[in-house]
Design brief:
The chain is mainly α. It has one domain. The chain is built from 6 helices and no strands. It has helices at 13-30, 32-35, 38-60, 67-87, 107-125, 148-169. The N and C termini lie far apart (47 Å).
């Protein structure tokens, strides 16, 4: 039986562990002024933002269907925006193309895009989308057959992620 678009389920143990680890990493980014060099802070912020936005789609697409999990990650998106405001004026973080903290403002739009793509998939395919695996086989998490619409959804998400990331770089 297919679940409703918005549904709540208890968090799985591994999701709780991941959220705790991610909260600790977020705290580390917030306190990076005291624990990292300037260059280390720049690199840490870039990787923290970019990998979160990419890996949430690739590895958490099933978990993000649970609205409880989605709201927690949306809260992290709000925290990213607050971190952006906190870090944006830090002269030590200034790079040639601006501040690396600008990448943090991409999290909320990408999470909203995720839900929009879910909605489109449910309307067009009458099922949740899956993330295509390398090599063209079934997806890695649910072992479901991948459709052309799933590839298109992946291209839209990855293309948007790349586009928003390039706004920082250029």
């Amino acid at each position: 039986m297919q679940k409703t678009f918005i549904h709540y389920e208890p968090l799985k143990p591994w999701e709780i562990v991941l959220i705790i680890i991610y909260a600790a990493i977020t705290l580390g980014i917030a306190l990076s002024r005291f624990i990292l060099s300037t260059e280390g802070r720049q690199v840490a912020i870039i990787f923290y933002a970019m990998l979160t936005q990419l890996f949430s789609y690739i590895f958490l697409y099933v978990s993000l269907r649970n609205f409880q999990v989605y709201l927690i990650w949306l809260l992290f998106g709000v925290i990213h925006f607050i971190l952006y405001l906190y870090l944006k004026g830090d002269a030590e973080l200034q790079m040639v193309r601006g501040y690396p903290s600008r990448l943090l403002i991409n999290t909320i739009p990408l999470l909203l895009l995720f839900q929009f793509l879910r909605y489109l998939s449910m309307k067009a395919q009458r099922r949740e989308f899956v993330v295509p695996a390398k090599g063209g086989g079934p997806d890695l998490i649910e072992n479901k057959r991948v459709s052309g619409a799933d590839y298109l959804i992946m291209l839209i998400y990855i293309g948007t992620w790349l586009g928003l990331t390039m706004l920082f770089l250029f």
